[in-house]
Design a protein that fits this description.
Helix content is 25%, strand content 24%. With 183 residues, it is α+β, with helices and mostly antiparallel strands.
């Protein structure tokens, strides 16, 4: 058996795809198909997987922190859809909360009360998430507001935005193609 794909959702669901050998009776000299099986584990319920995921995420964060010369700088002011501000839970740590407080001229306690939810992520690395609001397009970050000049939805705390927003992957951005090139 070989594992072909691992996907870890923000809600803690760990999806694993793996290949099982095709039974001999179903094989021929010209045709062999492996059976793809899928299992889902709840990382919140499995302490071993939770610790392994924490270790993996810490290693990945260390590597992501090292600048990548091939990475494209994202200019959110050119954004067409604000998809990242709608589709993702934004985890916030204490440094992010302090940055938001300074940017907004509020106390960290006031930022927590008005803009954050105390709902840690399953890795235990973050204590908070940004609150979400609903509009006719669906859920959105509470800081996503309509810009009066352009009419587009823009981040109202861009200079003070959380680290997760600052390090958003260009491959998830609608401004870029699959190779990270601007459209």
């Amino acid at each position: 058996m070989s594992i072909s794909k691992i996907e870890l959702e923000q809600d803690g669901d760990l999806h694993v795809e793996f290949d099982l050998p095709t039974p001999r009776a179903q094989q021929s000299p010209h045709h062999r198909t492996d059976i793809v099986a899928k299992r889902t584990f709840d990382v919140y319920e499995d302490k071993e997987l939770q610790e392994a995921a924490r270790t993996l995420f810490r290693l990945l964060r260390e590597r992501i922190a090292v600048p990548d010369p091939h990475r494209v700088e994202i200019d959110c002011m050119r954004c067409k859809e604000s998809r990242c501000c709608r589709e993702y839970d934004v985890f916030v740590d204490e440094d992010d909360r302090q940055r938001l407080a300074e940017h907004l001229g509020m106390s960290p306690a006031a930022v927590l009360k008005k803009h954050l939810v105390e709902r840690p992520d399953w890795t235990g690395d973050y204590r908070y998430r940004l609150k979400k609001l609903r509009d006719k397009a669906g859920e959105r970050c509470s800081f996503l507001k309509r810009d009066q000049g352009s009419g587009r939805m823009r981040c109202s705390v861009y200079a003070g935005r959380p680290t997760l927003c600052r390090t958003f992957d260009e491959h998830d951005c609608t401004l870029f193609d699959d190779d990270g090139r601007a459209f």
